[in-house]
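Appendix C. Worked example: Putative lipoprotein
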Amino acid sequence: MKKKLVAILVASCILAGCGSQNLGPLEDKTTKLRDENHKLKSDIQDLKIEIKKEKTNISALEKDKDNIKNAKNNKNKLNHIKASSEYYQNVTKAIDDYTNIEDDVSKNKKSEKIQSKLTDITNKLDSAYTTYKSKIDKDKMSDEDKKKSKNINKLNKELNSAMDDIRDGYNEKDKKKIQKGQATLSKVSINNN
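Step 2, the predicted output written as structure tokens:
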């Protein structure tokens, strides 16, 4: 038993001596891994800061994109308002021109001067509508502007129908046709809703 105890003691001493030699490289490796771990944590923190910065940039770019879209919508709306306004001004001038000769038209004397003025008025209405159509872009219009454009289309048809009846009636000395056109013209309403 004594031999066994001595053998165990000797083996323990040998093993203890061998074990301490292996600890040096392990401690170096542990230190190296700890340093690498610290560097990786620092890199991760830098990446988190970079990601946060990029998210802020993305948010700002999205806001700019929305602002540009709103600016384009406002520009399209402004273009439609200008085109509509010009159309209504031109229609008003043409109707004023007709009002100035309405008494002569009602007399139905088939004067070439009045015939010419009626043709000019019809041409002004056609020109006003053509100009309006050339200045708008239906694809870029809002639903509200499309509704207004539809009202302008309807107004144009009613005005043309009335003026065609008046002009044709005058040219043909047809009092009923003139009166029909005048009645239609008096019922035409400008609905800008």
